[in-house]
Amino acid sequence: MAVNKKNELDVLPLKEIKPLTKLDILRKLSPGTFLREGLNDILRGGMGALIVVSNSNSSNIFEGGFKVNCKFSPRRLAELAKMDGAIILSEDFKKIILANTLLVPDRTLSTVETGTRHQAAERAAKQINGLIIAVSERRRLITVYYGNLRYVLQNTEDLLRRATETLQILEKQREVFDELLTNLNVLEITNLVSIADICTILQRMEMIKKMADIINEYITELGKEGAIVRMRMREVTKGIGKKQEFIIKDYVQNPAKVRNFFDKLSFEGLLDAENIARLLFGELSETKIVPKGYRILCKTNLNESEINNLIINFKNLEGILEADEEKLKKVLKSRVQSFQEEIKKVKEQVMMMGKI
Fold first, then answer.
1. Are residues 175 and 225 in the same domain?
2. Which of 44, 97, 250, 352 could serve as 291's disulfide partner, Cβ 3.0–4.6 Å?
3. In a domain, 55, yes or no
4. Band of the pLDDT at 59, cuts 50, 70, 90?
């Protein structure tokens, strides 16, 4: 017997849940999850399906249906997909509420789809600003709609191959970054840093960050199948964030401006180092620039307060390295001798081995 859609949803009041991100959605649909198992069972059975995850707006986009109101399981989802119409899940994905419902979204909403099922899914997702999944028996694809987002879930083997290939490129980028950092160590100790040097290393770090974001999306969609790629990526990107934080702190007056600038910059924009120099520093790329010294001084045993006091008193790394013992003593007191020995070792390591 068909049930009244509004009364049925009134029985199961919906909690206020924050909007899902794309990664949230991929995580819920990754291999190994119950929902993905159910979707794969539908594909293997040569069937199609429409699955609506209910929210506070969803009662207006379907009609009729049969009350199910049972705990979600992959097998139950696949069995119910044998019926026509859409399946309605609870907002927490834990229950199947209704089956055999008719989606009736606003037909004036735009859609890029051609098939009736996928058109209904895309329009409904836009109308309720929610999650709807369409399984195509003909194309054997799972398409996810969430508000204006449209995404086709990738074949696990293809996705793993792309993730591995991208990771290999990321590893090369990390090697280049480490070489740039080694060179920066020498330039800072010898007071020969230019804006171009800083822009180049910031450029490389941002490339690594953007590529890591892409791989992280692959890993999320791969679920348990992406465990090895996840471990490799963590190793490749280890310490990048901290190094970036120190470099920005050393050379930029407004760190938040830099982060916001790079967040909005495309891969193409990253390739224009001259433009980065002009927008971030307002100077020509060959202009000399002096670090405050946070990154180098953190390689000593000075605490944060002592480092800050040195930079406040001597302005930058150049001033600190050139300061005599008497001037340093006013800031570091009894720690002067140990600091001078430590900074001497740091300089020797940089000049002899090119790294800290």
1. yes
2. 250
3. yes
4. confident
Higher pLDDT, 180 or 284: 180
Count of other CB atoms within 10 angstroms of residue 342? 16
What's the CA gap between 60 and 192, in Å, rounded? Answer: 66
pLDDT at 137 over 80: yes
* Residue 86: partners with Cβ closer than 8 Å, 6 or more residues away: 50, 51, 52, 62, 65, 101, 102, 103, 120
CA gap 107, 112 in Å, rounded: 13
Average of pLDDT values for 316-339? 91
Total count of domains within the chain: 3
pLDDT recorded at residue 259: 83
Separation between Cα atoms, residue 17 and residue 92, nearest integer Å:
9
Place of tokens 């964030």: 241
Query: Residue 66: what are its φ and ψ, rounded to 5°?
Result: -115, 135
**Does one domain contain both 11 and 136?**
yes
Largest distance between two CA atoms of the chain = 92
> Would residue 286 count as lying in a domain?
no
φ, ψ dihedrals at 115, nearest 5°: -75, 145
- The DSSP bridge pattern shows strands 131-136 and 62-63 to be unpaired
Residue 3 has pLDDT above 80, yes or no: no
